[in-house]
Structures are given as C-alpha cells and as structure tokens.
Design a protein that fits this description.
By secondary structure, this protein is an all-alpha fold. It contains 13 helices and no strands.
C-alpha cells in the first residue's frame, strides 16, 4: 500500500514538472498578448474596491465609476513618470563622475590586494570599465520605456473592457473565495507597498541620493530586494560612512515594520511566501517575461499560492511556496 502511494506521488510530481515546463513555454510564446492582459487583470482587481465604493456609497452609475477610476490611474501614472525620467537624466549626466569614482575604488582595491602579494593588471580593469557601453544601455532603457508607454495604452483599453464586462451571478463559492482573497491581497499590498516606497523615496531624497525617485519606485515594486539596490550608488556618491549607513538601515527598518508587523496583522497567514520562494519567482518570471516578469513575480506567485491552497490536490504545493511543507497540519 505504501509503495503504491509513493509511486503515485512520484508520478504526480513528474507530471507537475512536465506541466510546469509546458506552461512556461506557452507563457513565453504568448508574452506579447499575456503580459498586457495580466497587467490589466491586476489593475482591474486593484480598482474594483474603488468602483464598488463609488457605486455603493456615492450612488454613482457603474460606467461613470469605471471612467473615474481609470482617470485616477492615468493621473497617477502621469505624475510619477516625469519624476522618474528626471532622475534617469540626472544619473546619465553624472555617469562620467560615477565612472571616475569606480576607477578610484578599483585602484584602492588593487593597492589593498598587493599587500597580500596578489598581482592584478590595473590597466586591463580600467580599460574594461572605460569601454562599458553606458550610452547603449541608456538607449535601451529609453526604448524600453517608450515600448512600455505604448503597451500602457493597450493595458488601459483592456482594463476598460474587463471592467465594463457584466458580472456573473452564478459563481461557485470556491471561486468567490479565491477572488475575494486575491482582491484583498492586491489592494492591501498596493497600499502597504505605496507607503513603503514613498517613505523610502523621501528618505533617499532627504539624504540627497541621486535616483531617489527610481529607488523609491523600485521599493514599491520589489519591496525588500530594492533596499539593497541603492547601496552601490550611495558608496560612489557619498564620502562619509554615516550617509551610506542611513541609506541602508532607515529603509530596511521601515520595511521590517511594515512587512513583518503591519502586513501579518492584516493578511494573517493567508498570503505568506517564503523569501526563497520570492527569489525563485523573480528568477522564473524574469526568464519568461523579462523585466515585466520580475515586477509581476510577487503578486502572481501569491495569487498562485492562494489558488493552490483552496484545492486539496494542490495544497501541498501551496505549503511548499509558503515554506511550511515540513510542518504538520
């Protein structure tokens, strides 16, 4: 009997791996269509509570509530993009200064290594750094930004049609439960991530860090992982250690308070993801959908985890994503 159960588990695991590989190829192949659709679905879930509030409490017609909510999203987008663009332009204008500071740090590092009798060709490293295609990278970033703006229009159109679609009254309780939990996660996570990103961005701006708005936006999107991103810029920009330490620790403290104290009180254990799961999801979705996949990795993985939790056959996978597969019920 035990052997049959073990064989069934092996077969199930093998089929799951094969299905995952097949789905990955499909997701990668259908990227031009699926990415705007997924973003539109997430935006729809995000603004659903805003629409429901207007309909239930302000007695506004659904069409008007949808248009108001979409205008709000577009307005926020129009406000945020110029600040990010200005930060990118400032960084590109200071690229030569950063390059010189990197060369100075390389010289210091090589000098320290010589104390341990390690010989390194200084000129080779300097020439390699000087030949970095910074302008090509900048052009690639700008072209991707233009592509993103064009796709944003498509996302808005898709979102509009999704919001105007008629809701079905004949929905199963399980699916209603999944949708309710996903809505709660997306909306609440948006609020907590916005607070975290805004607080981190204000700290970076107050301390005079270049690219403050970009790092604040990345903190909103990537949360704790983005806390590590400003460290190289801070080391190159500031000569005093205290500013670098403040840039490292103040956003980390804010993230710990919001991520480990406030969010668990709101979510409970319903949306827990193990840190390793988050890192692996960033790699997985990044390989499939590129930078957009990295940005969508956390919410997509959380939605998959919530969905798997509601079915007995996939509950163990949900526990694995949560990092609690080793615990008893």
């Amino acid at each position: 009997m035990n052997q049959i159960i073990e064989t069934n588990r092996i077969i199930t695991g093998s089929l799951f791996i094969i299905a995952t590989i097949a789905v990955s190829f499909i997701l990668n192949f259908a990227q031009p269509f699926l990415v705007p659709l997924v973003i539109a679905l997430l935006i729809r879930i995000l603004i659903d509570p805003i629409i429901d509030y207007q309909i239930d409490f302000l007695r506004i017609h659904r069409l008007a509530a949808v248009l108001v909510s979409l205008c709000l999203i577009i307005f926020l987008f129009i406000i945020i993009v110029p600040f990010i663009g200005k930060s990118v332009i400032t960084f590109l204008q200071s690229a030569d200064d950063y390059n010189n500071k990197v060369l100075i740090l390389v010289d210091i590092g090589i000098s320290k290594l010589k104390d341990f009798n390690l010989e390194i060709d200084r000129e080779t490293i300097r020439n390699s750094l000087n030949q970095l295609p910074l302008l090509d990278w900048a052009s690639a970033i700008l072209s991707n930004s233009a592509n993103f703006i064009s796709k944003f229009v498509l996302v808005i159109i898709m979102t509009l049609f999704l919001l105007l679609g008629k809701k079905s009254d004949n929905i199963s309780p399980v699916w209603n439960d999944i949708i309710g939990h996903v809505k709660k996660y997306i909306f609440t996570k948006f609020i907590t991530s916005s607070i975290t990103g805004l607080a981190a961005g204000l700290i970076y701006w107050f301390l005079g860090l270049e690219l403050a708005f970009i790092f604040g936006s990345l903190t909103f999107i990537l949360n704790f992982i983005a806390v590590l991103l400003p460290i190289p810029i801070a080391i190159l920009q500031f000569t005093d250690l205290s500013s670098v330490l403040l840039i490292i620790f103040l956003p980390a403290i804010i993230h710990q308070i919001i991520g480990n104290i406030i969010e668990p009180k709101i979510f409970g254990d319903a949306f827990g993801l193990h840190p390793i799961t988050i890192i692996l999801s960033l790699i997985f979705w990044g390989m499939i959908w590129g930078i957009i996949g990295v940005l969508l990795a956390a919410p997509l993985t959380a939605i998959i985890r919530v969905t798997f939790e509601r079915f007995e056959s996939t509950k163990q996978i949900a526990r694995l994503l949560e990092g609690k597969v080793h615990l008893q019920n």
